[in-house]
Amino acid sequence: MRVKIFVSLKSGVLDPQGKAIERSLHTLGYGEVQDVRMGKYLELNVEASSYEAAESRIREMCEKLLANPVIEDYRFEIEG
Amino acid sequence: MRWGVIVFPGSCDDQDVFDALKRDMGQKVKFLWHKDDLVGHFDCLVLPGGFSYGDYLRCGAVARFSPIMRRVVEFARQGGLVLGICNGFQILCESGLLPGALVRNAGLQFVCQQVMLRVEETDTPFTCEAKKGQLLKIPVKHGEGCYYADPATLEQLRKNHQILLRYVDAKGRASPSANPNGSLDNIAGVCNETRNVFGLMPHPEDACNMRLGSEDGRKIFSSIAAACAQREHRRA
Predict the structure, then answer these.
(1) Which pLDDT band holds residue A73 (cuts at 50, 70, 90)?
(2) A64: closest CA of chain B, how far (Å)
């Protein structure tokens, strides 16, 4: 199964990169842009007997390594 | 006492710590490769600065699962002293030995400069030789040293007196302009609840010799040595 994982900074955590990108977009004339937050995107293949089995393994991977629960939230999509 | 300096792939301040301990402080120190087991007796383990595993994913996130880290956690649980400097601090936070996390500097730029630190607590093995409120001149060099903890954790840190060092100006005030990286509450170093694990972003090993502009970093290492001597005395 193909898995897409999205990791983002929690709302209370400063995101200076997001701020810099936002300023840059404003400079380019995209004044309508607000609240830019930068995150991480991962794709991976996983073998699992069922959707539920894959889901529980991926959640474990996110909690242990792929995201730091102190500063980050995550969500994922499983395809196929 | 015996010091162990852990070397991860990508560590780069391991030599500086070794040199400061051995040559400037006259201590017994040994390198420990991250794949080694913890053989023999150690009083203090140092996780040095650098870019373990190229800072991939998050700083310290991969080093946290190095084989030796399991032994570091056991060592800390048994009351052993663990000191994490810069990347070492990040690894200790990632491994859950210290609360909070270190994120990208608020100004986005890598900072490399001397900073002033104020010693906030002295009832720890890491600061016992300093005076409360004493100022230390020690350099920082990092891109991701902005300390973050959620409000509840921050409250706990304050209540338990776990904030050991704050960034301050020359007059000792924890002002926003004295904060090199946007750390919450000007936090430069914190310890765990049992006060035997300490992490800080500044590099005391680079301030142990006047040729480097300051000897104030010695206070951290001499505190640890004094605390260990006292422990040995109690055991005897």
Answers:
(1) very high
(2) 9
Give chain B as a 3 state SS string: CEEEEEECCCECCHHHHHHHHHHHCCCEEEEEECCCCCCCCCCEEEECCECHHHHCCCCCCCHHHCHHHHHHHHHHHCCCEEEEECHHHHHHHHCCCCCCEEECCCCCCCEEEEEEEEECCCCCCCCCCCCCCCEEEEEEEECCCEEECCHHHHHHHHHCCCEEEEEECCCCCCCHHHCCCCCHHHEEEEECCCCCEEEECCCHHHCCEHHHCECCCHHHHHHHHHHHHHHHHHHC
In a mutagenesis test of the B interface, which of A70, A72, A73, A74 is the best target, namely the one with the most B β-carbons within 10 Å? A70
Judged by a CB distance cut-off of 8 A, whether residue A7 touches chain B is: no
Report pLDDT digits (tens) over B11-44: 999 999 999 999 999 999 999 999 988 878 999 9
Give the pLDDT band of residue B235 (cuts 50, 70, 90).
Answer: confident
CB contact under 8 A, A16 and B65: no
What's the CATH number of domain B2-235, 3.40.50.880, 3.90.1150.200, 1.20.1260.10, 3.10.290.10? 3.40.50.880
Q: Kindly provide the ipTM of the predicted complex, given to two decimals.
A: 0.88
